[in-house]
Design a protein that fits this description.
The protein is an alpha/beta fold. The chain is built from 10 helices and 11 strands. Strands 3-2-1-4-5-10-11 form a 7-stranded mixed sheet, with helices on both faces. Strands 7-8-6-9 form a 4-stranded parallel sheet, sandwiched between helices. Diphosphate binds at residue 11.
Length: 344
């Protein structure tokens, strides 16, 4: 039987603990032992972590975050220890198979390890739902529910004060959270990364709503939404993480200012930020995460490597990790068109 090493990398996500619990339960049932690395790849490189048992994972199913901790450490960053550093961290604790739980960056490292002959079974994780190879990722439904609850609450204050309310949600490359929450919450304008927008187009739409007698509006915008070239100049945050990604956030600030200046309508913005990552996962995400964890342990028992567990329809399957890498999965045109029916 194998010794499984498990880690959680990248941003925390509701449902991570459900995956950890499931890998441990199924892994122990199949005769494996499980070691959990602390703080993602940083824990592997430092060979730091702890033994995971049924007792140590009792009660974690409904908890948000990750009991193992997470980081955005990249073993392959310039000057990093690379394959040799990872191998040393695995050998220190006798790990035979690695189960990394994460998004494109974490799984990208996993793919390179698999190519180097290190047995790896990946579990996809991102609240943005923008990973290819799987229909849904756990954490997404929880983020959508949190954003929908926020829209519901913003409706009452927007109506009370005749305001335009701008809600910024997560979504670096894809507008799944904005589109789903915007549809569920009755948003009047939804702005997503897949469709660059013009600020005057947005303002024109809001003016038409007011002309029809609507005294308030809700604008839902993804953090990665971009303006059409020449419509307005904005500056990025400029901070870059270990995987080369710019830190996003703040498009709502620009929209608040521009909408009020151009239309005269009182406008306020809310940035949900990390609220979307925190707290108790929904029942859907607990179930999906649990099924992913069980499937990952089964893949270890079957001797699979270089694969990722994934949801296809209602089935949990194995796909090559490479399917999750490269260009992100983006919002379906038909889904956005369905949401647009209710704009205004």
């Amino acid at each position: 039987m194998a010794r499984i090493g498990m880690l959680t990398g990248g941003g925390d996500c509701p449902g991570l603990n459900a995956v950890i619990r499931a890998v441990v339960r199924k892994g122990l049932m199949d005769g494996h032992t499980v070691f959990g690395y602390h703080y993602g790849w940083a824990g592997v490189l430092a060979a730091e972590g702890r033994e995971l048992t049924q007792a140590s994972t009792n009660g974690i199913l409904p908890r948000g975050g990750t009991i193992l901790g997470s980081s955005r450490t990249n073993p392959f960053s310039e000057g990093g220890p690379g394959i040799d550093g990872v191998r040393a961290g695995l050998e220190r604790h006798g790990v035979d198979v690695l189960v990394p739980i994460g998004g494109e960056d974490t799984l990208g490292v996993a793919a390179r390890l698999a190519e180097a002959g290190i047995p790896v079974v990946g579990v996809p994780k991102t609240i943005d739902n923008d990973l290819k190879g799987t229909d849904y990722t756990f954490g997404f439904q929880t983020a959508v529910q949190i954003a929908t609850d926020a829209i519901d609450r913003l409706h009452t204050t927007a109506e009370s004060h005749n305001r335009v309310m701008v809600l910024e949600v997560m979504g670096r490359h894809a507008g799944f959270i904005a589109a789903h929450a915007g549809m569920a919450g009755g948003g009047d304008v939804i702005l997503v990364p897949e469709r660059p927008f013009g600020i005057e187009e947005v303002c024109g739409h809001l003016r038409r709503r007011h002309a029809l007698g609507h005294t308030f509006s809700i604008v839902v915008v993804s953090e990665g939404a971009t303006l059409k070239e020449g419509s307005l100049s904005t500056a990025g945050a400029g901070q870059i993480d270990a995987f080369g990604h710019e830190r996003l956030g703040g498009i709502a600030v620009t929209l608040e200012r521009e909408i009020e200046e151009r239309t005269g309508y009182e406008t306020r913005m809310t940035i949900l930020g990390h609220v979307q990552r925190g707290g108790t996962p929904t029942a859907f995400d607990r179930v999906l995460a649990t099924r992913f964890g069980v499937a990952a342990a089964e893949a270890v028992t079957a001797g699979s490597s270089g694969v990722m567990v994934a949801l296809h329809g209602t089935d949990i399957v194995q796909v090559p990790i490479s399917e999750a890498l490269g260009e992100p999965k983006t919002l379906d045109d038909k889904f956005f068109a369905d949401a647009a029916v209710f704009f205004g």
